[in-house]
């Protein structure tokens, strides 16, 4: 069956062999007559750089990939994420969180407990309990804030949420493990969770393929789909390509970047084979 798939890199560094594998995997998963899309996930201006976007497009084209135009660049679509936030806010599911990182650490230390979720330490919910007057005071004082999802409220009454995963079968979503996730910040007006969920729906993606390091995040994405009335695509979380030493490849592993492999004289066909995709 033809699918609409996508590759969605963040321009925070040069692409390496692991990205090549993921991109080729997605392109192949589209199947004959399917659509393969490219999306640049550059919502975090503190980590993303335009020169990496240029390099990503160049490297993927060199690798022999062709995608449907136009490329969706997330930083050009903040209005779409704002609309989703407004909808969640209208349903009373968001609250402003004025806590700094240090304040969160101090609160956790005070409580003597440090529960963890898939994204790290769980937010202890301090600002969920602020009164409207306290919120108004912090806002008026111009204190920077993040918007958090009230997870207990958001996940109540939704019934069973599940998704179908090509690698693992039918998965029951349990987003509660993430606690009150951040959906927007001052410097990043949409979080990864929000932007990816909105975009996969807006772009009509039918099969999301990505590394298994993002498997846990799908619990949150499934919840957001339910809250925002968006369709649920099918997923396939693929294994990560490892280095010869058995370690996960990272953008800082210079030797494995597609640029360096090309500069060292490798052909695109050779790199595709190194990434484990033949033909
Ligand atoms: N932008 C994410 C990354 O580079 C991938 C997002 C996704 O495929 O859902 O890790």
Topology:
Blueprint lengths: L3 E4 L9 H13 L5 E6 L9 H13 L9 E2 L4 H13 L3 E4 L3 H11 L4 E2 L2 E2 L10 H9 L5 E4 L1 H5 L6 E4 L3 E4 L9 E3 L7 H11 L4 E5 L5 H12 L5 E5 L19 H6 L4 H7 L5
Parallel strand pairs: 1-2, 2-3, 11-12
Antiparallel strand pairs: 4-7, 5-6, 7-10, 8-9
Helix pairs in contact: 7-8
The protein binds glutamic acid.
What would you say about this model in short?
The chain has 279 residues and is of the alpha/beta class. The chain has helices at residues 17-29, 50-62, 78-90, 101-111, 132-140, 151-155, 192-202, 217-228, 258-263, 268-274, and strands spanning 4-7, 35-40, 72-73, 94-97, 116-117, 120-121, 146-149, 162-165, 169-172, 182-184, 207-211, 234-238. The longest helix is centred in the N-terminal third of the chain and has 13 residues, at 17-29.
What is the CATH topology classification name? Rossmann fold
The count of strands amounts to 12
Query: Low-confidence segments, ≥5 residues, pLDDT <50?
Result: none
Strand content: 15-25%
The 3D shape can be described as: globular
CATH 2nd-level architecture? 3-Layer(aba) Sandwich
What's the number of helices? 10
Tell me what the structure shows.
It is a single chain. With 279 residues, the chain is an alpha/beta fold. It has a single domain (4-274), classed as 3-Layer(aba) Sandwich (Rossmann fold). The protein is built from 10 helices and 12 strands. The strands form 5 sheets. Strands 1-2-3 form a 3-stranded parallel beta sheet, with helices on one face. Strands 4-7-10 form a 3-stranded antiparallel beta sheet. It has a two-stranded antiparallel sheet with strand order 5-6. α7 crosses α8 (217-228). The model has no long low-confidence stretch (mean pLDDT 94). The structure holds glutamic acid. Glutamic acid binds at residues 8-10, 41, 196, 210, 214. Residues 8-10, 41, 196, 210, 214 line the site of glutamic acid (GLU).
């Amino acid at each position: 069956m033809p699918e609409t798939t996508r590759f969605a890199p963040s321009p925070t560094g040069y692409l390496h062999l692991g990205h090549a594998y993921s991109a080729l995997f997605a392109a192949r998963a589209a199947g004959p007559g399917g659509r393969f899309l490219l999306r640049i996930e550059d919502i975090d201006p503190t980590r993303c750089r335009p020169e990496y976007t240029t390099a990503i497009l160049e490297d993927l084209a060199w690798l022999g990939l062709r995608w449907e135009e136009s490329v969706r660049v997330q930083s050009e679509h903040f209005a779409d994420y704002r609309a989703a936030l407004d909808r969640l806010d209208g349903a009373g599911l968001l609250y402003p969180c004025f806590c700094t990182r240090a304040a969160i650490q101090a609160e956790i230390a005070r409580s003597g407990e440090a529960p963890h979720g898939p994204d790290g330490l769980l937010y202890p919910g301090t600002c969920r309990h602020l009164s409207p007057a306290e919120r108004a005071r912090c806002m008026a004082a111009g204190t920077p804030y993040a918007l958090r999802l009230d997870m207990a409220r958001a996940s109540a009454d939704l019934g069973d949420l599940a998704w179908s995963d090509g690698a693992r079968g039918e998965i029951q979503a349990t987003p509660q493990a993430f606690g009150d996730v951040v959906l927007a910040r001052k410097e990043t007006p949409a979080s990864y969770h929000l932007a990816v969920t909105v975009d996969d729906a807006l772009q009509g993606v039918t099969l999301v393929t990505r590394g298994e390091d993002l498997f846990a995040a799908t619990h949150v994405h499934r919840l957001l789909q339910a809250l925002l009335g968006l369709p649920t695509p099918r997923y396939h979380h693929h294994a990560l390509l490892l280095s010869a030493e058995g370690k996960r490849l990272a953008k800082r592993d210079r030797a494995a970047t597609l640029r360096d492999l090309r500069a060292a004289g490798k052909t695109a066909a050779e790199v595709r084979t190194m990434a484990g995709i033949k033909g």
